[in-house]
Amino acid sequence: MAITSDVLVVGGGLAAVTAAVSAAREGADVRLVSHKASTLRQASGLIDALGYVPATEPAKPLRDGPPTAGRELDPDEWPDPEGPLADPFEGIDRLPESHPYRVVGADALREGLDLFDDLVGDAYRGGHTDRNALVPTFGGAVKPTARYPAAAEAGLASDDRPMLVVGFRSLTEYDARAFAGRLEAAGVPFDVAGAEVEFAEAFRADAKITRLAKALDHDEEIDGTPAREALAKAVSPHLHDVVDESGGVDRVERVGFPAFLGDDEGDEVRAELADRLGADVFEIPMGPPSLPGLRLEDRLFDALDAEGVRFETGNPVVGVESASDGRVEAVAVDRKGRTAPYGADAFVLATGGLVGKGLDSDREGVREPVFDLHVEQPDDRYEWFVDDAFGDQPYARFGVRPDERCRPTDADGAVEYENVFAAGGVVGGADAAREKSASGVSLATGLVAGRQAATEANQ
Amino acid sequence: MTRHTEDDGDAGDSNGTSEPSGWRDGGGENAGSGGCGCGEPTPGVPEAGRDEQPSIFVPDDGEVPDGGAEAASDADAVGAAERAATDGGVESASGGGESATGGTDSTELDPDAYDPVDVFPGGDLDLREGADSCYKCTSCDTSCPVAEVDDEFPGPKFQGPEQWRLKRKDDHDIDESITSCSNCMRCDDACPSSVPLSQMHNEARGQFVERQMEKLSVEYIRNRILANYRTSASLASKFPRTASFAMNFGPARWAMEKVMGIPKERDFPEFATETFREWWKARGGAQVENPDKRVAYFHGCYSNYNTPEVGKAMVRVYEHFGYEVMVPPQKCSGTPMFANGMLDDARRHAETNVENLVEAIGEGADVIASCTSCSMSLRQEYPELFDLHGIEDLAEHTFEALEYLRIHEDLEGELDAAGGLDDERAFAYHAPCHARNQGLSRQAVETFRDVDGVTMEDVGDSCSGISGTYGWKEEKYEKSMEIGAEMFEHMEDAEGEVGMTECPTCAMQMEHGTGYEIEHPLQLLEDALGA
Asked: What is the bridge-based pairing of β-strands A148-149 and A124-125?
């Protein structure tokens, strides 16, 4: 068996990269194995830490019985989440005790964010302060987030300069005027207008977002005009679209675009557009597939390379190859039909949650498919959820339950394997969607799992 | 004593009609050393070309499988017939009982053991499940190198699950844009739901060519010639110098572009004066005998006819590690045929390959390929598209050459002990798309990173753009170069002045775009080990 390393990280997202880098920085020889192209490319590229502390109990106690006994309950009985939080750290104490932040500690989150800042350099903003920034997302919501791409900087909702949001008919999922309307409804402290312009019409009706980005990267000619110039020309008639409360017209000071302003040459594209428009230019993070996510993936995988981490994507880890004395010696990697053993002194499981397929479920139960670790869940399937869609859904917190060193534990709270550590979405206890804490959980648990795995391997 | 030397891999095009294929001619002591022979079945060796059920790309005219199926048990025949009705969603003309959704009529269901899911009979080749798994996240579209440069190309999501649904109705033609898919298979790697995108594309392309493409058109003939590169190469290699000259002779190239649509910008690869198989025969076959460590080398067309130095490096490196190398008769892996929708051609070649390679596996060998598209084909596309006996066995036993050594040998230790290169050399490494899909995109970088005297730089994850025959079509040439532009730039930026890749056509594109000389990792491994 020749494929061995000190630490083997299973997964390819933010938690896996964080774990791999922090293990490598402890001096371990690290290998990362990811089944598919990294899920980072599905991500918004925003790094949240903790935006809300949602209620875990309804305002009025439910009548006796399992959660679904409250079928007749008015959803309004659930109190609104507390937030948006100005400071993610001050909310940690009010999270449930089993929350990963409570388990690994607030310092792990702080150090995880520091590590992230170090890896991405000047491509991200927000590292100068503990405070959350409010970044508009393409649905028109405003998201409290700890770090955000430099490309999104001029769009912050706390900034009071008038804003124009640009949309394109061919980007069907993105409606600039609706976006502007929702931002105003959310009570942002600035005037905003949305405008649909003709530019993407030069491309096919359902052009890929990467196609648009490449055209801007290379400044391709669109009907005889370079792409960046053509885009600026399409937008400039709308620079006075913003009407303030008194009916006056302001020239906008910043213009927001869906996030397709170049891939490799993004900074240059934004700078040129800003120059031509005489206004700051920013990107609004979109749903998957997202260029901010792709750019972050590129940066983090370059960082892995620079840290000397070995990595491969394309083959899944399908199970444990050999284990003894509460330790795993090797896992099985499926190489197109045949499994190969990958040995290591310690393993980090960072395969994601139900969406990332680090957890698998059917009518019988929820499982962790690689190490077959214990996933805490009610036996009765009808207790996996409550009727109120925005209530405290038990399934949202499913996952493996770690000890303070991020080692998954069994139903009795005992460590399952001495040398297996878990990080990111596969770790249960957080309701990341309601809390806006997915990235922070990945960073905090990734940091701890990676360090502890390196410690274990060095013994 | 030498074995496995007879060079009969170039035997006639139709399988098993002429030469004997007994490549174990030297040692009579081997069990079953009579070889698979033509027409005389060897016990334990699957016969080639006898399908157990129709393959999915063949238009189903309601035929109940014959031949092989008749010989099978009743239960198998019933299973095959059911699948025939649902494969690819083509309705059976004779099957009055089938519903429009491809399900069987409820009267055929046993009322006592009825389960609603029985309405949708599955089967290995039914792609419904794959189509259902697609939740339209468009990760595939984002990773498609063609969609990135081509406004006309609707992308892998459309070509796969969406078109699959459309064509379930009889009156729906396959969209012509399927021919713009280059079969790089990046969509497979990107899909978080494991939708079998490339399988769907191959199937749709096969149907398009079969049913909708004008067989007398220049495009069809050109594609067929490109896809059957092995045939041309086999001829050319008879007169390698003449062929190398003639193929790149200016006026001839001009004519080829005008008449055949082969871009004049491209240089045809040079043909070797001695093919790999000729060399193998002249050297007397394997120099190492080892019943415990055997590999069967699938050299593919390119390292046989054009770059035999890659094949020689493979042999020397493996013998260095004490492996007995077998070189079974073989034809094209089928990759260029899949990419051109020529599935009948691919199947014919696959039959020969499966037959001979499975026989080698029976003798304890694993199958090794030095071209990542070849290994991809044997591992993934064969079992996805064909149902030949032994095909799964072959898929399970196939590896890429460097991959296999990394799994089974202490390659790093050996390289360390060998002490590195005498002269400093720097390489700009490009990982082929088909290496990426096998999880091999980083193996060359990792293997050589710590070798003294070697600088190995990954030039990034862009596609080279040539995608086998894709960049050999006049109408695709510009796009091919546009896709490759990023790689060219990164190569120029890299320290190395020599390129490196596992894929022969990527190598052509790298050379074409930068003028660099290109090596295969096995060649460097040979040098570094002093093998």
From this structure: antiparallel
Residue with tokens 């045809």, as numbered in its chain: B268
**What ipTM score was computed for the predicted complex, to two decimals?**
0.84
| pLDDT for the residue A81 | 87
Q: Does B372 touch chain A (CB under 8 A)?
A: no
Q: Rounded distance, CA A98 to CA A299, Å?
A: 32
Whole-angstrom Cα distance, residue B500 to residue B193?
Answer: 32
**Angle of CA points B376, B378, B380, to nearest 5°:** 60
Reported confidence tier of residue B262, pLDDT bands at 50, 70, 90: confident
Model confidence at A287, pLDDT cuts 50, 70, 90, reads confident
Cα-based torsion angle of the residue sequence A87, A93, A97, A101 in order, rounded to the nearest 10 degrees: 40
Q: Which residue of B has its CA nearest to A351?
A: B192
Q: Is the pLDDT of residue B11 over 60?
A: no
CA distance A380 to B377: 46
| CB proximity B399 to A under 8 Å | yes
- Strands A221-222, A225-226: pairing is antiparallel
DSSP code at position B273: S
Contacts of B55 (CB under 8 A, 6+ apart): B125, B343, B347, B385, B386, B387
Pick left, alpha or beta for residue B72 (phi over 0 → left; psi -120 to 50 → alpha; otherwise beta): beta
pLDDT above 50 for B30: no
Query: Rounded to 10 degrees, what is the CA torsion of B30, B35, B41, B47?
Result: 110
Residue of A nearest to B412 (CA): A2
Which pLDDT value is given to residue A300? 96
Return the percentage of chain A with pLDDT > 70, whole number: 95
Instruction: Supply φ then ψ for residue A136, to 5 degrees.
Output: -65, 135
pTM for the predicted model, two decimal places = 0.83
- At B115, the amino acid letter reads D
Rounded to whole angstroms, how far apart are CA atoms B384 and B363? 25
Q: What is the mean pLDDT of residues B268-294?
A: 93
A190 vs B430: CA distance, rounded Å: 49
Strand A142-145 to A133-136 pairing? antiparallel
Read off the pLDDT of residues B78-121 as tens digits, 9 standing for 90 and up.
444 443 333 333 333 333 333 333 334 444 555 555 444 444 44
Residues from chain A that touch B139, judged by Cβ atoms under 8 A, are 37, 41-42, 288-289
**Cα gap B172→B183, rounded to integer Å:** 23
The token duo for B491 is 């190569």
Q: What is the pLDDT of residues A81-106, one digit of tens each?
A: 898 999 999 999 999 999 999 999 99
Q: Which of B314, B343, B321, B274 is nearest to B55 (CA)?
A: B343
Rounded Cα gap, residues B129 and B120, in angstroms: 10
Question: Which residues of chain A neighbour B191 with C-beta distances below 8 Å?
Answer: 36
Q: Looking at the complex, does the CB of residue B147 fall below 8 Å from at least one CB of chain A?
A: yes
Taking Cα atoms as reference points, which of A264, A47, A43 lies closest to residue A149? Answer: A47
Q: Residue B335 — very low, low, confident or very high, per pLDDT cuts 50/70/90?
A: very high
Which residues from A are below 8 Å from B149, CB to CB? 211, 214
Mutation target for A interface from B142, B184, B447: give the one with most A CBs within 10 A.
B142
Which among B11, B5, B9 has a CA at the least distance from the CA of B329? B9
b/e B302-324 (16+ beta carbons within 10 angstroms → b): bbbbbbbbbbbbbbbbbbbbebb
Helices (H) and strands (E) counted in chain A, each on its own, are 10, 21
Alpha helix (H) ranges present in A365-418? none
Banded pLDDT at A67 (limits 50, 70, 90): low
How many CB atoms are located within 10 Å of the residue A217 CB? 20
Q: Which residues of B touch A335 (CB under 8 A)?
A: 399, 403, 438-439
